[in-house]
Amino acid sequence: MSLVELAFSAPIATITLNRPEKRNALSPDLLRQLASTLDTVNERSDIRAVILEGNGPAFCAGADLAYLQQLAQFSILENMEDSALLQTVFYKIFTFPKPVIAKVHGPAIAGGCGLATVCDIVVAGREKAIFGYSEVSIGFIAAIVMVYLLRKVGDTTARRLLLTAERISAEEAHRMGLVSYVVPDDQLDRFTTELAQKIARNSASALRLTKQMLQALHGMSLEAGLQYAVSMNALTRMTDDCQSGIQRFLNRSR
Question: Alpha carbon 141 to chain centroid distance?
């Protein structure tokens, strides 16, 4: 059985974590399959939006606890290599050229919450979705996701989430800026699909360049950011998508 399933319904791809008996825990094998699946999706020019979901009662319950027990026997180099795998997958999702939507129907805890954090948009079911960075409760730290979480929700909220290890509802996560949309559980599938379709109607090159800018602007000074924006503005005007889009707009206006 594949730990990660992939389904295409162009222009949307759906990636499903498929380890329900372990609440989709992030084992090395699952992470490698997820990375490979993302590469497969990226090769498809007809795909413009991606939905990431989990099979079973949980979106993702974090790291595999049985595997965590083995880490004590690892050397520092082996632990570095293992940590780098998680970093690689998170970075691949965060920088993925196509928008990625996390559809969270149940618990997203620790690394699972991190997985949702690095997605562009998070849609959560109101009744069953739960979020939490529980790492400090077991003597661990959410080191890799912390880099992304600070960018997403800011210092004050990140400190609360990371230091308390509290679990929060979908509504509370939405108020914090961690979740983009909260919908009734029985509407989650339809809403997420319609959102992906809405995104996919936009220009593929414009989506890619927008994501590129969103990643690059963090850490830039105002002046550097504006200069970068001028360059990207000029570049976008030269794309086929922009020129054809302007022509369609002008034809409608006549």
Answer: 20
